[in-house]
Amino acid sequence: MSIGAKKDIGAFGPFIKVGADGWVTVVSKHIEFGQGNHAGLAAIVAEELGADWSKVKVEQAPGNAKLYANTMMGVQGTGGSSAISNSWQQLRTAGASARAMFVQAAATKWNAPAGEITVQDGIVRHAASGKQAAFAELLEDAGKVTPPQAPALKDPKTFTLIGTDRVRRKDSVAKSTGAAKFTQDVRLPDMLTAMVAHAPRFGATVKSFDAAEARRVPGVVDVFQIPTGVAVVAETTWAARQGCDAVKVVWDETKAEKRGSAEITALYRDIAAGKTTPEKTAWVAFDSKGDAARAAGGTAALETTYDFPYLAHASMEPLDCVAIVDGNSCKLIHGSQIPTMDQMNAAKIVLNAPGAIEVETLYAGGSFGRRATFQSDYVVECVHIAKKVGKGRPVKLVWTREDDTLAGYYRPIVHHAVRVTTDAEGYPATWRHRIVTQSIMKGSPMGTPELDETAIEGTKGSPYLKATPVVDAQLITPDVGVPVLWWRSVGATHTALVMEHTIDQLARKAGKDPVDYRRAIYTKAGANRHLAALNLAAEKAGWTTPAPAGWTRGVAVHESFGSVVAQVAEVQMLDGQPKVGRVVTAIDCGVAISPNQVAAQMEGGTCYGLSAALYGAITLTGGKVDQQNFDTYRVLRNSEAPTVETYIVPSTNPPSGVGEPGTPVIAPAVANALLAMGQAPTTSLPFVRT
């Protein structure tokens, strides 16, 4: 395919193709990087269309925001656990429209009333006459029917695919056999491989470099400076790696961040305590009711702080991209999480319109947010290099694990300060809350709001604050020279622990069972979904029965991305650190397209969250990152993974998020289990200091 080639839209619209063999191809506007959304998206279409699920496949959409924008974002992109939820109505309509076209084609051909014709498993039938035809037989006639703009959707009570265990991943075999195509699998004629030497401190730039030794490495083709460092272009990955190691770079650190993470955390504590005020920013209220002075006075039932470290995304596949630049034409081939952003940033470099940048999105081995920067950092590097190489010669940029760990972006350091007074029954009467953290949204092309919602989600709107008469909650976002980004479940990565561990401590101070304490607050706040999830998790975990000998239980409930997750974790102390055994999870995610996949996401999200809670921490010393690989950035081992049971709260609401809501709940559940066994309250993560 030539650069800039356009794909035709067929008779059934941009999301559906029906082949002459009767197979249905669902065109997915969302990337598949392990979360399994392709199966759910395909099932929505297949259900409404009446397709044979065994003859449905998925194809990745090209970069085209006009056709494939995320309806919640306004750009083509995957994130915020929105793949299914933003596509629900859109794909149901697309499937129903295509079904109506086949029905009308059959009605005309058979001279039968359209209302008497049904479609199931790829077969169009008219029971009264006994006539039937497969999609392939009616394809030509159906393609001539004008698609209805508002087709009748199925009654969910008649669903035969959605909500069943028949909805399984379509990519399992390809990924198991190696047939699935990732960026590292791309092999193009005359392709070069590139790596980049990055600065050891964020904000530093190249002052000078000596490439003599690098150029002596067999296979190295060129060495040159790009805005983010020094690029080495070679015939092989190994040659690029050796050449990159051989480059001698002198860095200009005039504007570099030279503070360590301990210094930044100490600064945040001082800011929250009112001992200092950062420049160019101010406190912003995100929840306020009643007399704020009351929240600062009286005898506090609980006054505490919480500290959270930088976290790396640590995806199994480090960052990579293939770019082909010929003049002002550009094609990108990689696991693009936000194609529109990649198009915009690449267009600035090759001096073309964003829509002219072709994006071919491949599978990616994880992301957890890392492939979705506003700056398209690694993509921009690849385009700069490919532009320098020129003449349409493909260039594959490869980041090593060390590059991925050392060169940002991270979940930011966060500090919370909480002060709560209680009423005569031990429930919150006043709640004072201060959050100090970097803004993820600052500098966003989507605008820089005064209040960064990503920093407060999970606190703002919490049923605990809704049920508290006096609330004084504020956020401040000081500038720090470390690049930060959303990380799986974003603000909930810290707010879940703060809110749930605070509530557990208050329950114990009031002499009340933590589950009963939450029930009372949820009832007062009208948080019926929280209550239902809590009750289901508590029931399935056997909360009212003794835990196994040597174990204690902790409970936590949190809402994120439209879904409510409750977890009960069974924990013991083993060799001085928490060991998590059984985790019972209840989730209200609206209509569960694929119960099996919901369970898989709860398992994966729980393990990812537990990994960070136990071990996750990126630390800086003098502005330099201390961790480089999995030997120093510890992750959960298979032997440490808990058994996760998942139960879905029945719901007829539209689907909500699943990919991220399972991640933030495990840390507070573990912290609360430790509290139950008499351990000191958790005031910082990770639990294990290495």
Q: What does this protein look like?
A:
It is a single chain. With 690 residues, this protein is of the alpha+beta class. It has 3 domains: 16-176, Aldehyde oxidase/xanthine dehydrogenase, molybdopterin binding domain (Aldehyde Oxidoreductase, domain 4), CATH 3.30.365; 183-255 and 319-398, Aldehyde oxidase/xanthine dehydrogenase, molybdopterin binding domain (Aldehyde Oxidoreductase, domain 4); 263-310 and 410-676, Aldehyde oxidase/xanthine dehydrogenase, molybdopterin binding domain (Aldehyde Oxidoreductase, domain 4), CATH 3.30.365. It is 29% helix and 23% strand. The strands form 7 sheets. The chain has a 7-stranded mixed sheet with strand order 9-10-7-17-14-15-16, sandwiched between helices. Strands 12-20-19-18-13 form a 5-stranded mixed sheet, with helices on both faces. Helix 1 packs parallel to helix 3 (83-110) and helix 15 runs antiparallel to helix 16. The two termini are 51 Å apart.
From the spread of the alpha carbons, the general shape counts as: globular
Note poorly predicted spans. 1-5
CATH architecture type of the largest domain: 2-Layer Sandwich
As a percent range, the share of helical residues equals 25-40%
| Total helical elements | 18
In terms of topology, how is this protein built?
Blueprint: E1 16-18, E2 24-28, H1 37-49, E3 56-60, H2 65-68, H3 83-110, E4 117-120, E5 123-126, E6 131-134, H4 135-142, H5 172-177, E7 192-197, E8 205-210, H6 212-215, E9 220-226, E10 229-234, H7 237-246, E11 248-252, H8 261-272, E12 284-289, H9 292-296, E13 302-308, E14 320-326, E15 329-334, H10 339-350, E16 358-361, H11 377-389, E17 395-398, H12 401-406, E18 414-422, E19 428-437, H13 463-466, E20 470-476, H14 492-509, H15 514-525, H16 528-541, E21 552-560, E22 563-574, E23 577-588, H17 595-615, E24 620-621, E25 624-625, E26 643-648, H18 666-676
Helix pairs in contact: 1-3, 3-4, 10-11, 14-18, 15-16
